[in-house]
Amino acid sequence: MPAEEQPAKAPPFETPFAWIGGEARVKALVERFYDLMELEPGYAVLRAAHGNTLDNARERLFWFLCGWLGGPQHYTDRFGHPRLKMRHMPQNTGGGSIGIAERDQWLACMDQAMRETGVDEDLRTRLNASFFQTADWMRNRGE
Description:
- The chain is globular, with a radius of gyration of 16 Å.
- Helices cover 60% and strands 0% of the residues.
- Residues 85-94 have low confidence and may be disordered.
- With 143 residues, the chain is mainly α.
């Protein structure tokens, strides 16, 4: 059967959270993501959109990703539904203007962090597709 007609290969784990390796691996991913944002000049626009400190963002993204990936619901247990777009509006605390540059830098930074923390290639491909859909939907500035 040609590749384009073969059914999609089932993931080797029940959830992306299990596939990635649990909380410790999600934490490592989030830490690397924000470290890269601080260190790499190519993510300067993204870093500027995050304010003076990344401590709160690190914690919240970790909590959010755990639940989003199918693990513990740390974020919703603390804050309820994520309401991502509303929470990221420029007028809200912690929110910022999100355009194409911010979206693309977020995606590139997360992809680099996933590569550098050893996220499985198949999982990384799946997550990149999901992250793109969410990041594009999060844009709040027309360009």
